[in-house]
Amino acid sequence: MTMKVCLVTNAKEDTAAYTDGIFPADSEVLLLTAEEMEAQIEEINFLVPGHIDVNAEFLNRAKNLRLVHCGTGYNNVDLEAANKNNCYVCVTPNVAATSVAELVWSSLSSLKNHIAEFDAILKDGGWKSTDFIGIPEFKGKTFGVVGYGNIGREAARIARGYGMTVIAHDPYCKETNDGTALVSLDELIKSADFITLHVLLTPETTGLFGAEQFEAMKDTAMLVNACRGPVVDEAALVEALKAKKIAGACLDVFEKEPLDPKSPLRDLNNIVLTPHIAFCSNEALKGRYQFFADNAAKLVAGEVPNMAVNADQVS
After folding, report:
1. Same domain, 295 and 163
2. Based on the domain organization, do 221 and 197 belong to the same domain?
3. Contact between residue 90 and residue 239 where contact means Cβ atoms under 8 Å apart
4. Residue 13: which residues within 8 A CB-CB, separation 6 or more?
5. 134 with 218, same domain?
6. 146-149 — which CB contacts under 8 Å span 24+ positions?
7. Do residues 120 and 178 both lie within one domain?
8. Judging by beta carbons within 10 Å of its beta carbon (0-12, 13-18, 19+), is residue 13 exposed, middle or buried?
9. 167 plus 240 within the same structural domain
10. What is the side-by-side strand order in the sheet with 181-182?
11. What CATH number has the domain bearing residue 84?
């Protein structure tokens, strides 16, 4: 089976550096923008869509599409429509856990230590005006992990290195096997000094953190979201940050991406914003593309690809 592989990207040269030579030899590998891909969708067999919406209308036009390959989540894919079209939908396993967890801690460190603020002051020729700048240490604090999968566990491992107490909430995890206490979401919200979110986007997790949760958090607590934007109610977060109901937040993902240039999040000084880059370490990208290529080889060989969430629905 000769297969046409398409990776949707606006950074073709950079993507080529990670993908050259790793896909099956008899595959045609296309690096296309979303617009370019749309013009060829009927011919594509294997698609890495990025963050574009793979809806029913799209899938009905993709007559030869056999596999849509996503990152850690597949909320941008209409799974029912994929099933009807006998198209596998795959997710990528534990290749970015370290990359995401490291960004969580980089962002938190920057936020709590006011790195951006003091960097700007010094580059403008200034100096600090006082030693009393309200910086807490991580040591001895409580780190709350919502969603205790691969990424959550890696973030917890780093927290323990700081000498923190780690608690977690995950209704699908019955035993952590690393000493981390599993608690209710309410208890975690009330107890944690720092909270990180690592859940899939589902109807149950949409708006998981909103006004009620921010009200229940400590006013010294900080929140990180590096999973999916809609897990956090951005309007409620803006109000909580303005009112100092929580001390700060770090966001790598947003309800709508790219982030609106006029978003009120951009005007806050107690937030760290990054443009959905948590998975972008060199090592994570290399592992991610290699996994895509390995699944392409399986498809060529007529085998079921790894990590297919609808394997039992595709004939």
Report:
1. no
2. yes
3. no
4. none
5. yes
6. 146/170, 146/185, 146/188, 146/195, 146/196, 146/197, 146/198, 146/199, 146/208, 147/197, 147/198, 147/199, 147/200, 147/227, 148/173, 148/176, 148/180, 148/182, 148/198, 149/173, 149/198
7. yes
8. exposed
9. yes
10. 181-182, 165-169, 142-146, 194-197, 222-225, 248-251, 271-273
11. 3.40.50.720
Location of structure tokens 């969430």: 309
Query: Is 242 in a helix, a strand, or coil?
Result: helix
**Structural domain boundaries, residue 141:** 97-273
Distance of CA 162 to the CA centre of its chain: 23
Please tell me the pTM assigned to this model.
0.93
Backbone angles phi, psi at 35, to 5 degrees: -65, -40
Q: Which residues are catalytic?
A: 228, 257, 276
How long a stretch of residues is the chain? Answer: 315
| Residue 115 and residue 247 in one domain | yes
Q: Three-state DSSP class for 222?
A: strand
Task: Name residue, tokens 């790793």.
Answer: 22
> How many independent structural domains does the chain possess?
2
Residue type, 161: G
Dist. CA 206–CA 204, nearest whole Å: 6
Question: Two tokens at 192?
Answer: 């944690």
Neighbours of 14 (CB within 10 A): 12
In whole angstroms, what is the distance from residue 110 CA to residue 229 CA? 20
Per-residue pLDDT of the chain (315 residues; tens, 9 = 90+): 689 999 999 999 999 999 999 999 989 999 999 999 999 999 999 999 998 999 999 999 999 999 999 998 899 999 999 999 999 999 998 899 999 999 999 999 999 999 999 999 999 999 999 999 999 999 999 999 999 999 999 999 999 999 999 999 999 999 999 999 999 999 999 999 999 999 999 999 999 999 999 999 999 999 999 999 999 999 999 999 999 999 999 999 999 999 999 999 999 999 999 999 999 999 999 999 999 999 999 999 999 999 999 999 997
| Domain identity same for 25 and 150 | no
In this structure, the number of other CB atoms found within 10 A of the CB of residue 277 comes to 13
Residue 125: CB atoms within 10 A of its CB come to 6
78 and 102 fall within a common domain: no
